[in-house]
Design goal:
Elements lengths: L17 H16 L12 E5 L1 H12 L6 E5 L8 H7 L2 E3 H4 L1 H4 L6 E4 L2 H8 L8 H7 L4 E2 H4 L15 E7 L17 H4 L5 E7 L12 H14 L3
Parallel strand pairs: 1-2, 2-6, 6-7
Antiparallel strand pairs: 3-4, 4-5
Length: about 230
């Protein structure tokens, strides 16, 4: 996605909104299906999306329901009550101000957590190796203002999508469930009424960054089992 990882850093308000991410992934899917990547035409495409990536997957399946053959959501629900409080608890600030030597060239509308505690609070809970916190903090990515003000509008219904859907989330995902996930993950049944299959896994004693908790290996195993059971 634009503005993430090793990509370029376009305007952090106008050019990095969630719809840009949706259109980018849609174009990639079309190229894969048309054989324009490596000369192979892919007729089955699964999309795995964590957090904002999951929101992008949700929006794609609503706007372009035939793009995806399977969807795997990680760390999202359709409860937006706690998303922005989680952002605030992260004490986010412009990356260029937090670490000028490392990120001084990053445009001002790219933000990240300013402290280790601010990174841990919305992302970790319960059963994890505390040694991972330093690694996660060092390699943390950026959020743009454009994405922050637009992504909740892409948590939508996808009534025309007919493939299988998997949702895995930590029991104590403070960003998408608040204190504890109870009924929120099962909203996937209502959002995808025509899906051929719904699989929901809630991982105990786990926070938002599911893969960085001790249950992360189970999420990977469950995801692979889901894909194999649907012909991948």
């Amino acid at each position: 996605m634009a503005g993430v990882g090793n990509s370029s850093f376009p305007d952090g308000l106008r050019e990095t909104q969630t719809q840009v991410y949706v259109e980018t992934v849609h174009q990639v899917v079309q190229q894969l299906r048309d054989g324009k990547v490596g000369g192979v035409k892919w007729n089955k495409i699964a999309l795995v999306g964590f957090s904002i990536g999951g929101i992008v997957a949700n929006s794609i399946s609503a706007q372009y329901p035939s793009d995806l053959s399977a969807i795997l959501f990680q760390g999202i629900s359709w409860d937006t009550t706690w998303v922005f409080p989680a952002f605030i608890s992260g004490l986010q600030a412009p990356a260029a101000q937090i670490d000028p030597e490392r990120w001084g060239s990053i445009p001002p509308l790219y933000e990240t957590q300013s402290t280790r505690e601010g990174r841990e609070t919305p992302n970790f809970y319960g059963s994890f190796d505390r040694g991972i916190l330093e690694t996660d903090f060092y390699y943390r990515d950026f959020d743009t203002i454009g994405a922050a003000i637009s992504f909740t509008y892409h948590l939508v219904d996808a009534p025309e999508y007919r493939g299988p859907v998997f949702l895995g989330i930590g029991e104590y995902d403070s960003e998408f469930c608040g204190i504890r996930c109870i009924g929120q993950p099962y909203e996937v049944y209502n959002r995808y009424p025509e899906a051929s299959n719904h699989t929901v896994q809630v991982y105990e004693n786990t926070g938002h960054q599911v893969l960085l908790h001790h249950t992360g290996t189970r999420l990977m195993e469950d995801s692979l089992h889901f894909l194999r059971s649907h012909g991948f």
